[in-house]
Amino acid sequence: MLMQQLLNGVVVGSVYGLFALGFTLIFGVNHIMNMAHGTVFMWGAFAGLYAVMLFDVPFPVAVLIGALGGGTVSVVLDWVAFRPLRKRGAPEFSSIVSSIGASLILLSLAQQLTATRVMRFPFDIFPIVVFSFFGLRIQLLQLVIIGIVVLMVIGLLYYLYRTSFGRQIRSVAFSESTSKLLGINPFAINFQVFFISGALAGIAGVLIGIVFNSVHFMMGEPLLLRAFVVIILGGLGSIPGALIAGLLIGIIQTLTVAYLSAGLADAIVFSALFLVLLVRPTGLFGGTAAVARVTRR
Amino acid sequence: MIGFLNSYAPLLELALFNALLAFSQYVVLRAGVFSLGTAAFAALGAYAAAILATKLAMPTWLGLVAAFGIGTLAGALVAIPLARLRGVFQALATLALVQIVLSITLNWVDLTEGALGINSIPKTVGLVGMLVAVVVVGYFLAVIGSSSIGRAFDIIREDETVAVSLGISVPKHHMIAFILSGAIAGLAGGLHAYNSYSITPNEYGFNMLVIVLAMVVLGGRVSIWGPLVGAVILTVLPELLRGFQEYRMVVQGALLMVSIVFLPRGVADTALAALRRRRIATAKAKTGTVTA
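YS: structure for the whole thing
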């Protein structure tokens, strides 16, 4: 029983990790708390869903279209909500406010578009195969999700740390003005970062829409709130941190629901955030450089 | 006049309640604290007042003192870990606080009646009571604002490094701001509970957080007029836009974005700055001095 719950926790946790990846990328590079990330995720899910409903595309194509949709929304978001503020050198607070505004608009438009309905992917979009081993049960789709999360983390790490683009992104993350002097075009870098982040969110949207068998305009909100806890626990902009913290939160939440009560889960997860901030504000993977950006002395 | 007051009393009371919440948000933003915790503090105050009135049949003044007290206490407790954190992390943590309070009020059914909320609270605070609260709090904030604490708040908001080099303790002032914010929001919650017959957990959720933030961003976060102007605009606007009910959130979102992008200092502060410039210009023209 405990093993099965732990396994379920890992699945839920990898969903959180998947969602938090793009969020933590923007946070790490642009230092923007993108409160509209949940709606980007939701629009990605809708892009995949409408592709399936209108053109009857197979599963991999739906995931790709979800990625494309999420990426596009995210880039537009950057242009409309964040670029004017970046140009002016506005404080961090402005981008939080602006992204809250953008998320209200995106949320409301989706609500109008779908008339507040809860929609579903067709039943046969992904074959239901259940594996049993050692008395544990896991679905093929859940395995696919865990696999995709691991792949994405490795891919993202490779891109950031082993390619020239990645080096440019990291230098912009370190200091935008210095990278300009070095001949890096921050415009192109921000475009990339927002597109990748949105694409990751879109993929997550399609997958989560299929797993939970529902796509609706509010689907991003609970995940966004979890993602806050994940990035704080994982450490500022740390990608492996996001994955591990996602797994931890998933396990904590599943165990709370299984052994204590469903109502308590939220309170415990968010109290964990306070505990982390009190004891180790830089999170699990925040290095010494992160200390100065998190706390003041 | 009396007829006008009677028909618009609920709207006026709502505007005054919003103004109190906006004051609570304004104090923290003025000090450069990115707290989004106003909704949580207000929920604590409202529930404390409502529970005292309905379950224990306590008098109104005691309920309001309790609401004020619990808000102050919550602000102080939250400030201990958060005053030493930087902006984004304060925003995240206070957002989590709103969620924690929401989940407690939803799930501790024995005490809070859960999602249904607490109903049939006797209405003991009217328009006058709300108005007195707004005036008193506003006056108090204006006094604090022009004291050394207010100056320190302004410097910390504009540039922390300068503030530290002037010997201003940032964590200490952030703590003061948190406590003030908690106290005002707690009082606002208590007054609202005694004014509106019923309270529900979801009233004090993400929507309230967004609206209150929008009021201060739109109005301005330096002068005391900012939150007042913002509260009035964002209370009246939905009434004017009643025909476009479905697009209310779009309008709110667009308003937030447009005001932070094009009017980053807010309506009231921009207007006050323009007024001051004009006064200086006319004074110069009168005395005939020419400055290079």
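YS: worth flagging: The longest helix of chain A spans residues 59-88.
IM: good catch. Also The beta strands of chain A are 130-133, 136-139.
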